[in-house]
Amino acid sequence: KQVIAVVPAAGIGSRMGAERPKQYLQLNEQCILGHTLDCLLTHPQISTVIVALNPSDEYFAQLPQASNAKLVTVIGGGERADSVLAALKLADEHSWVLVHDAARPCLSHHDIDKLIASDSMFPQGAILGSPVRDTMKRTEVNGEISDTVCREQLWHALTPQYFPVRELKNNLSAALVEGALITDEASAMQWAGIKPGIVRGRADNIKVTHPDDLQLASLFLDNLNR
Ligand code: C5P
Question: What residues does the record give for site: Positions MEP for the nucleophilic attack (predicted)?
Answer without folding.
Answer: 151, 207
